[in-house]
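1st attempt posting a full record on here, be nice pls
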Amino acid sequence: MSWFDTHCHLQTFLQGQELEAVLKRAEEAAVTKMVTVGTCPEDWKDYQQIAKQHPGCVYYSVGLHPGYVDEDWKSQLLSLQNFWNNKINPVALGEIGLDYFRLPKDEAEAEKIIFFQKEAFRSQLNLARELTCPVIIHSRSAFYDCVAEIDQSGVDWSKVVFHCFSEGVTEIRELIERGGYASFTGILTFRKNYQLREVIKILGIDNLILETDSPYLTPEPYRGKRNEPALLVETGKFLKDFLCESESKIMDLTYNNSKSFYGVI
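the predicted structure (as tokens):
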């Protein structure tokens, strides 16, 4: 029995020469598979190399995160498709999407950034449709715009996951209706996050997917410290108590859901 961390960012550990220790702690915690998620050209090759060095354990994705999108987004995407033309292919395209959380106060500047984000998002969704690969969505303060873009793109919703889902009951029902997925981080464990726990009740565990988003969003009781894949276990333990299910059942369901979504063995 194993855990699957469907969304982490390993470059921090690589740069700090801590990657092997982090992966060892993950293995000791029974987190035997993980996807390290690309955000910009500067981490794509690192993640491809990590996946090559740790086959069957570390998988990777490539995508241009909306936070890195600017007027130069087209040149940033020039090499994106090439990652599917080698022996170590990404398991998904992402994380991509829209982020309106920290837009400039100047309305004209904000509109320009939103325009670039939408154009880059559409371009990557079109590529994902052509590749028929899974898509990892980053959505912050932009849920319905993201949904509208995916609807219009023709991407198969069964290949779409909204990572670090932090919306409400209405939004999770929109995803369920379309056949899309949501993945959940350690913010589920935060004491006052009642809304997200209501979302879990609506979703149930049959389609549940978990992630750390490490090195961010560390779960209780380690909140305030740096997150890492091994701490996925804490979110699993929380769900065991919250849902009154066995830890082995949650582990088994989330592991198999994750393998199926990403198409890995």
